[in-house]
Amino acid sequence: MPSKSARRGAAHEPIRRCAACMRTAPKSHLLRFVRLPQTQQVVFDSQQNLPGRGAYLCPQKACLQRALKRNALSRALRTSVPHALLETLLEQTP
């Protein structure tokens, strides 16, 4: 068993699942969307630190399109998600 000092050296990064394609990836490699607790509004969380129920998507255009087509974020966040939110990200994604 490794010593405490050896375990402290390696930083653990949380793993999350994309709501569209179901692939897992480190949290920092995914886009986070949040349903805010007070207003139930869905927003893009670029800093990944807002409170509320979160859902993740891969930053690829195919995953964003799949999420839009299948309402993946609505299911994951348990609320309706405006299509304009994902369409804006699709326009900005190369």
Describe the structure concisely.
By secondary structure, the protein is of the alpha+beta class.
Question: How is this fold's topology laid out?
Answer:
Elements: H1 4-9, E1 15-17, E2 24-26, E3 31-35, E4 42-44, E5 53-57, H2 61-70, H3 72-77, H4 83-92
Antiparallel strand pairs: 1-2, 3-4, 3-5
Helix pairs in contact: 2-4
Task: Estimate what percentage of residues fall within beta strands.
Answer: 15-25%
Radius of gyration: 15 Å
What number is the mean pLDDT? 90
| Distance from first to last alpha carbon | 46 Å
Oligomer: single chain
Q: Within the largest sheet, what's the order of strands? A: 4-3-5
| Secondary-structure-derived class | alpha+beta
User: Into how many domains do the coordinates divide?
Assistant: 1
* Order of helix and strand elements from N to C terminus: HEEEEEHHH
Helix content: 25-40%
Q: Kindly state the number of beta strands.
A: 5
Instruction: Report the biggest beta sheet as strand number plus sense, adding barrel if it closes.
Output: 3 strands, antiparallel
What is the top-level CATH class?
Answer: Alpha Beta
Low-confidence stretches: none
CATH fold description: Hypothetical Cytosolic Protein, Chain: A
Q: Do you know the CATH architecture? A: 2-Layer Sandwich
